[in-house]
Amino acid sequence: MAYFVKEIYYTLQGEGTQVGRPAVFCRFSRCNLWSGRESQRSQAVCQFCDTDFVGTDGPGGGRFPTAKALAEAVRTAWGGDTDEHSKPYVVCTGGEPLLQLDEPAIIALHEQGFAIGVETNGTQKAPEGLDWICVSPKAAAPLMLTRGDELKLVYPQPLAPPERFQDLAFDHFLLQPLDGPDRDTNTALTVDYCLAHPQWRLSLQTHKYIGIR
Ligand SMILES: C[S@@+](CC[C@H](N)C(=O)[O-])C[C@H]1O[C@@H](n2cnc3c(N)ncnc32)[C@H](O)[C@@H]1O
Ligand SMILES: Nc1nc2[nH]cc(C(=O)O)c2c(=O)[nH]1
Ligand code: SF4
Ligand SMILES: [Mg+2]
Description:
Substrate binds at residues 12-14, 27, 93. Keywords: 4Fe-4S, Iron, Iron-sulfur, Lyase, Magnesium, Metal-binding, Queuosine biosynthesis, S-adenosyl-L-methionine. The protein is an alpha/beta fold. The protein has a domain at 3-151: Aldolase class I (TIM Barrel). Helices cover 19% and strands 26% of the residues. The protein has helices spanning 67-78, 103-111, 183-196, 206-210; strands at residues 3-12, 22-28, 62-64, 89-93, 115-120, 132-135, 147-155, 169-177, 201-202. The protein has a nine-stranded mixed β-sheet with strand order 3-1-2-4-5-6-7-8-9. Helix 2 (103-111) links the parallel strand 4 and strand 5. The two termini are 28 Å apart. The mean pLDDT is 98. Bound molecules: S-adenosylmethionine, ligand 2KA, iron/sulfur cluster (SF4) and magnesium ion (MG). Iron/sulfur cluster binds at residues 31, 33-34, 46, 49, 51, 53, 94-96, 121, 138.
């Protein structure tokens, strides 16, 4: 199977429990909850997306004909050491990565020495072998993935309050302020919710504050 990838680049994980960890970001094209076209945002199931995932024209992006070719491109983006002190890490995101990320890709990435994280909207089943699963539920989308390593809810979503997710089988529960024109207000609301409900921790999108991607 061929893989369609918007961009592949090396940066720091900006969000969630693994914040600050060097990682190759492999951003798959396409999402099942929005076409990616601005003209269709207001009709989309997920309307707050902060990401361009359309096409394959970003840095390091392209159509990769095989899992091996994809994994080699990820390895090239890592560049540096792969000794026992610096096991390489890839974050598969998108778009919705679980529309494309399959077991052959996971095997090929493991063969290149990578631990594999995924950022998913939780509407698809996850293939075997992932090392870190971050689920970020969207209010209007059915949640299929009800277990994983972290649940990272964008807050506030009036139709998806944190109470709906607090008993699911995740090790970490995070609230991430909804970015957009009301980011500061949403950050204050998120702080208040975490203070009142200490099961939840604040996840800031740190890369946006320090000007990295
Ligand atoms: C662009 S999504 C791609 C992965 C997957 N489709 C998902 O939604 O989880 C990556 C992360 O950014 C979050 N995100 C997207 N738009 C956001 C926004 N406007 N404010 C805060 N977080 C946002 C998503 O909830 C998700 O955790
Ligand atoms: N630095 C950085 N960290 C991230 N963590 C999750 C991201 C995503 O878009 O999935 C993201 C991103 O876009 N950039
Ligand atoms: S599900 Fe993820 S990639 Fe898809 S539109 Fe929403 S935030 Fe963007
Ligand atoms: Mg992002």
